Amino acid sequence: MLSRRLLRIKVLKALYAHFKAESDSLIVSEKNLLTSIDKTYELYHQMLWLVVQVADYAEKRIELGRQKHLPTPEELNPNTKFVENRVIAALRGSEALTDYLERKKLGWVNYPELIKKLYASLVESEYYAKYMASPNRSFREDCKLVESFYTFTVCESELLEEVVEEQSILWSDDIDFSVIMVLRTLSDMKASQTEVPLVAQYKSDDDESFVRELFRKTVVNYKEYKEYIDRFTQNWDVERIAFMDNLIMASAMAELVTFPSIPVKVTLDEFIEIAKYYSTPGSSVFINGVLDKIVESLTAEGRIQKVGRGLLEE
């Protein structure tokens, strides 16, 4: 499933687009937000299929070698361990995966150069050489090979980034997140399973509600939250405070006062961590200091009410 951190990031990006476009339609902006989340889930399936396409390419190379007029001994008796990898076979035979790809019209058929380059990088890798040389053919070993492919080969491919962005501008920042979901799927796979355990888009209905509510509350109350933030940044040059910093702090405020089951520490840690990657250098330290003061003030006003496991500690 998509992590809560990714969902928060999606909300922040949707907020940025909403305010920068000076949109007066909350409904349209919210629809764009949900579409962005849907597209990330599509990329997860697309990425999961990538290793299948590389294996298919490898199998075609083997067949071409065998069909040569004067094939070498290696071409006549190739090492087929990779193309017979059982994890890849399970992905190829997954009805849930293939049905989804077909329904969404996803795949890599239009990007043969990418598949070729990924295959070349794979066969040149140390982990591939070790795998092919090993006489073992366990499911766990097959799974480890595929995990290494995504961790080392896919994540380091610049061409992949270009191709993914070409396919959808909404995918440009989501490769790492999709790979994490792929690795989670691989870790859940077992030899005894008849179907690949695809992760759900949302962990529960609560996650979709969380996204909608966080976005709506931040938009509707942004002016109030901004005025509140300004009270604790009086010693700063307001014009130099990054717009994204204000969005991060306003979103954190919306989460603090709207979701009683989310601990204060979780909210602060998540948005401070997000600031490290999506705002200016040093923003996380600045945001941390301001949010600490805001939490103290909101608590004194009784606006932060936590219940259950999220009970606010004094």
Keywords, please?
mainly alpha; N-utilizing Substance Protein B Homolog, Chain A; 15 helices; 314 residues; 2 domains
Helix and strand succession? Answer: HHHHHHHHHHHHHHH
Q: What's the count of strands? A: 0
The outline comes out as elongated
Count of folded domains: 2
In round numbers, the mean pLDDT is: 92
Distance between the terminal alpha carbons, to the nearest Å?
A: 33 Å
From the alpha carbons, calculate the radius of gyration and give it in angstroms.
24 Å
Number of H- or I-type helical stretches: 15
- What structural class do the secondary elements suggest? mainly alpha
Share of β-strand residues: under 5%
- Helix % is 55-70%
Give unreliable regions as ranges. none
Largest sheet: none
In short:
The chain has helices at 4-20, 26-66, 73-76, 86-92, 95-104, 112-123, 126-133, 139-154, 158-167, 175-188, 205-220, 222-231, 243-258, 264-278, 283-300. The protein has 314 residues and is mainly α.
